[in-house]
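FAQ

Q: What does a record look like?
A: Structure on top, sequence underneath. For example:
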């Protein structure tokens, strides 16, 4: 070992720097979206403990069980499962023993038996929903942004996290359509990236190409986030990236504006609507998956019954 270290030293290899770089790369193995979710999960748990006068580290099985029951009032079991993973991860990171989750698991099983194992999913938007929603938007920077976001989200079926990560450099708009480059996604953790092309729509009001052109004129050509927030208390566009949660709020607000139950809708309604519309119009599943980034046919078919036609039908539907 000493000979190896001496040889590396003589060759000018900085072992400390290499080890630091290795640690940095290892840290990238966990997707940033997952890291953010775990951080939010831990804040939720620690906040519960503070309000309940309980100890978060180390947490007792009873505390974790009560927290899980509290969360199940408004959260899905899958979200609670992720939060339990975050709690366990924090204990391990602090050099503490993993908490005993046996009782909590039984609580989750009981909840699923009582409510059914199938979790409530967001309702898929239809082209008719989309047309009605767009009519409620104002004709200003914020309205143009919302129109571009809704039409692009529906036409591509992208996850809200993918839409939120888009930068101006990731889209190329032409008269024929919009080319979108997805640098990284939920099923592409290594960042190979993929391109999708959105063709001009048949109906002017719901054409994603026209909507994007109009929005970009209002946004400006500065480099950075594609979809941005509004200035606080104003309708002017800022230069701050629009968060994924805000996209869910947008869909719910528009759903309520046309008389729908907002609780039934969310950002996922755009993705579900794209897949449902495509399959009902006969688009081959393989082509839908290439656009939406689905890796599993079983997951895709949770959205709608399958049928078969051609992909360009979707562009004419909106």
């Amino acid at each position: 070992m000493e000979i190896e270290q001496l040889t590396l030293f003589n060759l000018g290899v900085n072992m400390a720097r290499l080890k630091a770089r290795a640690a940095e790369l290892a840290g990238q193995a966990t997707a940033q979206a997952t890291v953010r979710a775990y951080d939010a999960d831990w804040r939720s748990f620690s906040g519960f403990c503070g309000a309940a006068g309980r100890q978060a580290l180390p947490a007792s099985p009873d505390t974790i069980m009560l927290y899980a029951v509290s969360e199940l009032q408004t959260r899905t079991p899958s979200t609670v499962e992720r939060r339990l993973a975050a709690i366990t991860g924090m204990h391990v990171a602090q050099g503490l023993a993993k908490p005993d989750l046996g009782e909590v698991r039984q609580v989750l099983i009981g909840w699923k038996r009582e409510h059914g194992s199938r979790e409530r999913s967001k309702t898929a938007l239809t082209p008719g929903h989309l047309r009605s929603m767009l009519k409620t938007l104002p004709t200003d920077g914020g309205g143009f942004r919302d129109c571009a976001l809704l039409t692009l989200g529906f036409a591509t079926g992208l996850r809200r996290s993918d839409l939120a990560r888009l930068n101006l450099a990731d889209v190329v708009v032409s008269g024929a359509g919009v080319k979108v480059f997805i640098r990284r996604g939920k099923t592409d953790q290594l960042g190979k990236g993929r391109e999708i092309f959105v063709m001009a729509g048949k109906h002017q009001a719901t054409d994603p190409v026209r909507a994007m052109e109009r929005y970009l004129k209002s946004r400006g050509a500065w480099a950075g986030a594609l979809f941005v927030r509004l200035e606080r208390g104003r309708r002017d566009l800022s230069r701050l990236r629009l968060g994924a949660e805000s996209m869910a709020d947008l869909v719910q607000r528009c759903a309520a504006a046309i008389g729908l139950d907002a609780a039934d809708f969310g950002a996922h309604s755009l993705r579900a609507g794209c897949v449902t519309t495509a399959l009902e119009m006969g688009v081959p599943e393989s082509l839908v998956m290439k656009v939406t980034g689905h890796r599993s046919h079983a997951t895709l078919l949770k959205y709608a019954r399958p049928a078969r036609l051609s992909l360009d039908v979707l562009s004419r539907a909106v």
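Q: Is there anything notable about this one?
A: Residues 1-11, 305-314 have pLDDT under 50 and may be disordered.
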